[in-house]
Amino acid sequence: MSDLFAAPQGLRTDLAAQACVLHGFALPFADALLAGIAAITAVSPFRHLITPGGHTMQVAMSNCGPLGWVSDRRGYRYSACDPLTEQAWPPFPESFLTLAHAAAAEAGFDGHVPDACLINRYAPGTRLSLHQDRDEDDRVAPIVSASLGLPATFLFGGLARGDKTVRVPLVHGDVVVWGGADRMRFHGVLPIRPGRHPVLGEQRLNLTFRKVR
Ligand code: MD3
Ligand code: FE
User: What pTM did the predictor assign?
Assistant: First the structure.
């Protein structure tokens, strides 16, 4: 579906030497990704995880693939088992792997084979505070992220928490890829502005494909 919320396709913005936005790269996959997310979350539903400090995360999460990211009073970690269902996470839909592989290759990372995909759901007002993704054993393999639904302003920082951040607008269909020296940058998402996306309604979904082990 063509819509005013979506990115122009085919353009690329470099954020750093090994980090870029592939504008609209996920648009040809959008229907398949949404069908996959619906099937996955019918089995392993979105939930608000508890941080080790006892706070409830604003972002609702699920996972698919061999490993999933979880958090509870004991800490943050990857687990092959969904603690809610006590079963393996749903497998990767084929379209997820195709997108992750193609986007990584387009960004210069050949042969990217993720073993985890975190699915984030943001309602209007939800933010994700500045953090590093440091629970993966592999600290250089690329992470591929696909944004769907309401637009977001992504904060792209440096390797230290206090480094200056730049604001990167992300819309439906955008893919961000970062790896190598830029893999450990601090990043976050500003509060999602109220709005209604023609396909997804009042939400933003983000898929992040990771290589954990
Ligand atoms: C660039 N998710 O799940 S994805 C996360 O939009 C997470 O849901 C955000 O951060 C989201 O851990 C951001 C895009 C992204 C993520 C991490 C980066 C871009 C990045 C790390 C360094 C540089
Ligand atoms: Fe992150």
Answer: 0.96
